[in-house]
Amino acid sequence: MKTPSGLQPLIDDGVIDEVMRPLKSGKEAAVYVVRAGDAIRCAKVYKDMAQRSFQQRVQYQEGRKVRGSREARAIGKATKYGRKQQEAEWKNTEVEALYQLRDAGVRVPEPHGYFHGVLVMELVVDADGHSAPRLAEVELSPEQARGFHRVLVRQVVRMLCAGLIHGDLSEYNVLVAPDGPVVIDFPQVVSASGNNAARAMLLRDVNNLTASLGFWAPDLLETWYGEEMWALFEAGELRPDSELSGHFVHDESMPDIDGVRAAINDAREEALIRQQGREAAEEQD
Length: 285
Prior knowledge:
Elements: H1 8-12, E1 18-25, E2 29-36, E3 39-46, H2 57-61, H3 69-77, H4 80-103, E4 111-115, E5 118-122, H5 142-161, E6 164-165, E7 174-177, E8 180-183, E9 190-191, H6 198-214, H7 225-234, H8 257-284
Antiparallel strand pairs: 1-2, 2-3, 3-5, 4-5, 6-9, 7-8
Helix pairs in contact: 3-4, 5-6, 5-7, 6-7, 6-8
């Protein structure tokens, strides 16, 4: 295929030898399958700010560290230089998070370097060597769904212990490899201690996973792992190997407890409706 302009510098520098095919194109980046010697990897080419449709950048950037006072002032004033620095920081975020989470034991694609604004990393494959499917694209038995849920909850715990929250976690950014789920896509990662919306984002991440896997194992919809792990995190008691039960007693004195519960249950109710529809369809068959 014709080499995309964003990948030509990597070929010129000998980082990769060939662009084999496009893998996917999303709102933040385009990903290509590439060859580096005998290794088959993927290369993530980030889209320019003007091309992207992601609109909640400010909320996600709260609590992120900016490299210098000059850069911070420029970003705050939205100057041309500031916008350029903001773009660079946005791209660097995923790279740094990937290395940090890899070191924390989170199952993420193995990073192989960041060159000319392009992230080169492991190509996650299935048992036949093809690109691994997303969690949203596979059918699961109840036992498999519960197993995947246990693994993914543990990944979220490890992320939180490393001080990070994915921020956009769902069945669409989890790949299914032969050895289990792999979490991908981290440009929107947030600081667990430095972002005022951290708790809400954590609960949304966990509930997205629970709703998706609860389609195959409805008993998961009665669990509250996100609330449980956040309570432990706030108390300074969460550890990467903390045993979670999925049970949580809500504080009835909270002024907006009904609103909190309603927001948390939205995804669960949708999953239950889908499950009921599936069961009805099976009965008709």
